[in-house]
Amino acid sequence: MTDTTRPLSSLPATSPLGQALTQPLLLGLFLPIHNGGWSMSSLPRGTDWSFDYNAALTRQAEQLGFELAFGPAHWLGKGGFGGETRYRETSLDAFIATSALAAITSRILLISTIHILYGPWHPLHLAKFGATLDHIAKGRWGLNIVTGFRKDEWAMFGQQQIAHDERYQIANEFVDVLGALWSSTDNLDYEGSRWQLQQAFVSPKPQHGRPILVSATSSAAGIASAVRHSDLIFITSPVGARFEKAIAALPELNARVKREAAAVGRDVRTLINPMIICRDTEREAREAYQAILDRADHGAVEGFFHSHATGDSQSWRGHERDERTVGGNIQLIGTPEQIVDQLLQLKAAGCDGIQICFFDYEPELAYFGQRVIPLLEQAGLRHPVARVPASPYASLAA
């Protein structure tokens, strides 16, 4: 199969995604391409939204063997979510930023988030752009498909928000057209409910059938859509970020996603987004967590909750104010050994990978590589990864 419904089992083992999937637990980095990262706190840190900072992080993650670098997307007005930090007022575009990373990396998969229903997007645009990026990144580029749950974002584009379940029906049509354009060996004529194409053609074709497709969802309609076409599905804890509560709820959610994928003849991998706070002792880790809370930007937290409440997303439910202040869909706190134990539990609960965020990215990512990854290898969650050579274009972002 070369269309969007191909099962992962049909993916060539030599493709970048096929090679990544040989790891027992996928490691991804949630890039902080917006100010404030994932923590609504004024506690000082080096985390920065700039491209140079995120480029350095991505190269650092690639050297450590991470499989994924993921760029989030949102559309916010002046002041962002508010507060003294003006949380996420400044942000790079995920499509442009993560695509640009292809020139300075050689192995890591690069996932761009795009709101495919906002503004004038046409499947032919994205089919051509995606095929081009597939060749630039040598099969390492992927698309995270989102439909937009916040009314204020739709309003920025002068559009009325489309009803929740209808959005996924339209997204399915969009992705079906992408698949047809990527796989068709002749001009394509198409008359759909929303898009029409006459004698449309895309060349070159993607190298492994199509780019990597990703979805982030929790609703029934979202899961039904995601299992039709996505390779990777980002799930969210339905009961908040506290590990003890989340780990009890995740087995059923993971099982449901994979059961629905199997029902349509597909296999997928699920990932979850943890905030990892790891220190030499548990006391130090808990103190670091509390220090973030002690400098909480309450105005930003209030703005975030208000904005989220006006939308119709069914993800991130059950998160309390403290949990949102620190960030992450689930929070892993403790020593390197405790972090590995929690990751073993996530794997046992059906999670195939993690998309990590840190409070202070550069030093905490380095610490994770030095102290946690060797323990993951000992625990059987990771296979050792050979150090990658520097990209010939690395100096462009130095």
UniProtKB/TrEMBL annotation:
Report domain Luciferase-like positions. 27-352
List the InterPro entries: Luciferase-like_dom, Luciferase-like_sf, SsuD_RutA_monooxygenase
Enzyme Commission number(s) from the entry: 1.-.-.-
Key words of the record: Flavoprotein, FMN, Monooxygenase, Oxidoreductase
Q: Which domain of life is it from?
A: Bacteria
Q: Name one GO molecular function term.
A: oxidoreductase activity
Question: Which Pfam families does the UniProt entry name for this protein?
Answer: Bac_luciferase
Which protein is depicted? Answer: LLM class flavin-dependent oxidoreductase
